[in-house]
Design goal:
The chain has eight helices and seven strands; from the N terminus they run βαβαβαβαβαβαααβ. By secondary structure, it is of the alpha/beta class. The longest helix has 29 residues. The two termini are 28 Å apart. Bound molecules: NADP nicotinamide-adenine-dinucleotide phosphate (NAP). NADP nicotinamide-adenine-dinucleotide phosphate binds next to helix 1, strand 2 and helix 6.
Amino acid sequence: MDFGLKNKIAVVAAASRGLGRAAARQLALEGATVVICARRKKEINRTACEIQEETGSVVVSVRADVTKPKDVRELVSQARRRFGTVHVLVVNAGGPPAGEMLALTDKDWQKAHELTLMSMVRLTRAVLPMMVRQEWGRIITINSIVAKQPVNELLLSAAIRPGIGGLVKVLANQYAKYNITINTVCPGHIRTQRQEELARFRAEARRISIERYFAETAAAIPAGRLGRPEEIGSVVAFLASEQAAYINGVNLLVDGSAAKGVH
Ligand SMILES: NC(=O)c1ccc[n+]([C@@H]2O[C@H](COP(=O)([O-])OP(=O)(O)OC[C@H]3O[C@@H](n4cnc5c(N)ncnc54)[C@H](OP(=O)(O)O)[C@@H]3O)[C@@H](O)[C@H]2O)c1
């Protein structure tokens, strides 16, 4: 199936590895020109080269921290200066740290708010005028299963991620008339560096080995395994496609049925 992304310009935030990288790679495989960012210059440059070499699509790297308003503006301006516009935005960032209520400080809460919510607000605000003008746009935010089913030690995530789901629905209502769709993908347990770090934290807390933690996690997921980053990348590419034009305001679980309940 041709996803209709060949002449499209995509910006993918936080994409030197993990889910952002997988989304950027899949969009590039579909023929989109992709602008990616992360905080570490060497890593994001290397990832851009790797994806460009593999896919043959143009991939541009920008060093940017999505918690910094100036960096967000510069990321989107670079895409606009070089390619004229942005058609697809993938909002992503590192996850907020795990922690207990009595250990988390105001600063931790403010940092998580900037990282998870305000990065989405600022990136979206920067691209929406272009999308409205061209009457075409796709915004896909990498959210989390935690938006649907809180996890005790991911307090910061549990407090902020459901709000992103609410914001996405309101924006979808307001911008659908411009042929813009705004959705989130809510990954379950996907094997990335972030997942390895969480696994270490949880395994240590329970005094079990990391291998045992992963075996138990896989056994608790109906699919019987953790997900692969490319399984998120392909959902992002589909949501960015022409074919997904009528999917709007959705918070889509991609979790091997890990979340309990009807969502
Ligand atoms: N993996 C999962 O199972 C899972 C499940 C649910 C939700 N999520 C969420 O999905 C998101 C991505 O997770 P992941 O597993 O792909 O994480 P990851 O493997 O740790 O990768 C994070 C990526 O984001 C970049 N990044 C981090 N902070 C940034 C910032 N402030 N500005 C710009 N780039 C930044 C990192 O590069 P630099 O360090 O160089 O900036 C890296 O490229 C997180 O919000 C996570 O909570 C993941």
